[in-house]
Amino acid sequence: MKEKQTRTKIDFSKSLESSSTGTRERESMKGKRFLSIPVFSVFLLLGFIYYVAVFVFIENWVGLQSSAGSLNALIFTFLASLCVFSFLVCVLTDPGGVPPAYVPDFEASEASDQALMKSGTQLRQCAKCSAYKPPRAHHCRSCRRCILRMDHHCMWINNCVGHRNYKAFVVLVFYAAMSSLYSAIVCGVMTVGLFLTLGTLLGWHIFLISHNMTTIERYDVIRAAWLARKSGQSYRHPFDVGVYKNITLVFFPSNSVLACVCVSKKHSHVYLPHGSRSNTFWTCSDMLKYASTFIIMFFLGRPGDRM
Length: 307
Hints:
Blueprint: H1 2-32, H2 37-61, H3 67-92, H4 106-111, H5 113-119, E1 124-126, E2 131-133, E3 138-140, E4 145-147, E5 152-154, E6 159-161, H6 166-187, H7 192-210, H8 215-230, H9 243-251, H10 268-271, H11 284-300
Antiparallel strand pairs: 1-2, 3-4, 5-6
Helix pairs in contact: 2-3, 3-6, 6-7
């Protein structure tokens, strides 16, 4: 036990030394993500479809000067703008790497060892990063680091799809599917294939979200369910907490404004199975509680100081 903690402290100090360097490298890589043939191809495809739909088909159909033509051009421009904006967010947003300060709570993990065995989540260490990684984190060979709640590495955005940009990716697929549907109605059979492809991808991720799964975890779930049936048992995905909660965890993780910058252990279903805890991260409610307590004590004084 002591040897493990000593090794962890050594790895932790090493990771702190390299964290600043890694952060600077990732910041410089954001702009370089656009220097990719697939990303450039996406921009070309969007521009081509927009030009053909607006300046060819709508112009020849009703004319851009007419009210119907202006309305159709405005609707399609609005959908295309949302699609481009979501695409930029997916490319530029960091998917969420494992924090260099992440250290598992060994005492809590040993106390709940049976629970972890039942849920199928155990302490894991990445052999390539030489550091511990929380549940649902996986190492990406393209990004060369471990990604929180990694779904897959998408070459079309030249980035990983993980915890921080998964919502943006699903929204991108939705807007792209709606744009391709609208262009298919306007242009005919020209973009039907694109709509079917994006619609299938959107349906796949809706299915994953409803079960609180990632693409990587889906294949593990299939194998675990097969092994459970083979032994006469039933299997349930440990992170599945119901359709409504699964959807809110992705699209509405918290009502707090700080939800986008705070890693919350209250959203344990994102990282840990239901019932598991970790003292590594502070929640947004903890930060707000201590901040409000400090403000009250600073302006009003402690209750014992008042008459």
